[in-house]
Design brief:
The protein has helices at residues 2-23, 28-62, 65-77, 87-92, 97-111, 116-126, 131-141, 150-173. It is mainly α. The chain has one domain. The chain is extended, with a radius of gyration of 22 Å.
Length: 197
């Protein structure tokens, strides 16, 4: 029953929208063409911003700067239970979802999906946003050149998401399972090395 409702949800919404438009006397085809033209203009308008963010992400990852940042910050974050292996994800996620998925995929292949690192990377991926990509796209679409507080506040939101991910992953899967008291000190045996079977 639920599968049938789910299958008919989108066609039903489209049909309902068309019915309401016809009842109100709206020329649906004319509105569709106008919307498509506006969408094409918007795509052309924001294309330089999107290309710029993809080039910056590629340079950031391939230049070695990302691995350098990881080596600098790892000693400071390891005592708080944050494995150095997830730092590339933290640094690349605000720029590109595709690159972040690549980092998570590498982590899952190396450490496994049921390791602490694999679980933490998966939760972090879902708890953060491609901040610079979104700001570039939306602010570029409306022509805003100075974002004032948008960048710092969005990055603060990402940091809160990363900290919440670490806390929740530790709570649910670290140090004794679901009912354990969260701790910021994890033994190295829980940081992703799977036992050989």
């Amino acid at each position: 029953m639920l599968a049938a409702v789910s299958a008919w949800m989108l066609p039903g919404l489209i049909g309902l929208t068309l019915l309401i438009a016809v009842v109100r006397g709206i020329n649906v085809y004319e509105e569709f063409v106008t919307g498509a033209a506006d969408g094409a203009r918007l795509a052309v308008q924001v294309m330089p911003y999107v290309i710029g963010i993809y080039i910056a992400t590629g340079l950031f990852r391939e230049s070695g700067f990302l691995s350098g940042l990881t080596h600098v910050f790892a000693p400071f974050l390891r005592p708080f239970g944050l494995p150095a292996e997830v730092l590339p994800l933290i640094f690349i996620r605000p720029f590109s979802l595709a690159a972040a998925i690549g980092v998570v995929s590498d982590l899952l292949k190396t450490y496994g999906p049921d390791s602490f690192i694999g679980l933490l990377a998966a939760v972090m991926l879902g708890s953060s946003e491609t901040t610079f990509y979104v700001l570039t796209l939306y602010l570029g679409a409306v022509g805003i050149r100075r974002s004032l507080y948008a960048v710092p506040l969005c990055l603060l939101g990402d940091i809160v998401g990363y900290l919440a991910s670490l806390w929740l992953t530790t709570l649910f899967w670290g140090m004794g399972g679901f009912l354990s008291v969260p701790t910021f000190w994890l033994p190295s045996s829980r940081l992703g090395h799977r036992p050989s079977v």
